[in-house]
């Protein structure tokens, strides 16, 4: 096992010491793979090392919005993004300590703490994997393990298509949706009618989240983002405040077929520049 990352808690270091180390074939592996995922990850040329986890308890700041105004809650948007990044970074540190090539099946969860409505727990968890032949070509940006929310089956299919995962990319936007005035509300009673103010608010907030996710993918050097998901949640904030969260796996074409098991190579089409 490589040098332990100093920031990891003592119990995390002890747990990681008992996991598989590809350099000396010691320890056991742990994973949240189903049996099918376990088999397909192996078919893709990888072996599981262990579950890796990152956690962050975060106090969100206070921001007020005009009662009748659509606007982003920038303080909360930044808080939600930074807290997820902290959890992700700590999960990546655990993966690095295992000399992993990547982390798959990543889940990002947010839970409000009962003792304070402004305190949220952010959890990142996934299974660290290593290329069975020790090929370095699967690393993500800056030589760190790649991260992905793809399942074992999806990883196998992605490699077959000639692409590899780079990083889990995300974008967040917390938005205040304006309230309607009393007379406008009364005017809508009993009618089928679009609510343009609400429509525009929801549209704008989703677009901001998507745009930020796309920007992360560009900075990672990706060609595209697969398995994109859009989540909405209020996290028990005040009425009319909602978070839009976009997440997906940034990918790029495989340039070196040596990193792929031979049984998959005939099905891969490598882009050729004219």
TrEMBL record:
Tell me which SUPFAM superfamilies the record gives.
YbjQ-like
The UniProt entry, under InterPro entries, shows: UPF0145_dom_sf, UPF0145_YbjQ-like
> Which top-rank group of organisms is this from?
Bacteria
Q: Which PANTHER family match?
A: UPF0145 PROTEIN SCO3412, UPF0145 PROTEIN YBJQ
**Family (UniProt):** Belongs to the UPF0145 family.
Protein's UniProt name? Uncharacterized protein
The organism encoding this protein is Acidiferrobacter thiooxydans
| Organism lineage string | Bacteria, Pseudomonadati, Pseudomonadota, Gammaproteobacteria, Acidiferrobacterales
């Amino acid at each position: 096992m490589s040098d332990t990352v100093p920031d990891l808690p003592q119990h995390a270091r002890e747990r990681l010491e008992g996991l598989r180390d590809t350099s000396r074939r010691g320890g056991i592996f742990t994973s949240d793979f189903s049996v099918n995922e376990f088999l397909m990850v192996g078919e893709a040329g990888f072996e599981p090392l262990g579950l890796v986890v990152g956690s962050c308890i975060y106090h969100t700041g206070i921001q007020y919005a005009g009662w009748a105004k659509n606007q982003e809650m920038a303080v909360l948007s930044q808080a939600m993004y930074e807290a997820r990044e902290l959890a992700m970074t700590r999960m990546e540190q655990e993966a690095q300590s295992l000399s992993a090539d990547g982390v798959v099946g990543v889940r990002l969860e947010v839970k409000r703490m009962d003792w304070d409505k402004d305190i949220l727990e952010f959890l990142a968890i996934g299974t660290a994997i290593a290329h069975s032949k020790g090929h370095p070509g699967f690393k993500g940006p800056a030589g760190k393990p790649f991260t992905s929310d793809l399942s074992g089956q999806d990883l196998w299919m992605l490699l077959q298509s000639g692409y590899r995962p780079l990083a889990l990319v995300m974008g967040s936007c917390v938005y205040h949706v304006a309230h309607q005035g009393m007379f406008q509300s009364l005017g809508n009673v009993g009618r089928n009618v679009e609510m343009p103010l609400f429509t525009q608010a929801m549209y704008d907030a989703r677009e901001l989240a998507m745009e930020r996710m796309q920007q992360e993918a560009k900075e990672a050097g990706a060609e595209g983002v697969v398995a994109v998901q859009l989540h909405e949640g209020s996290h028990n904030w005040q009425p009319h405040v909602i978070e839009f969260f976009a997440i997906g796996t940034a990918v790029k074409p495989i340039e070196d077929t040596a990193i792929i098991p031979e049984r998959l190579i005939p099905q891969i089409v490598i882009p050729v520049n004219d």
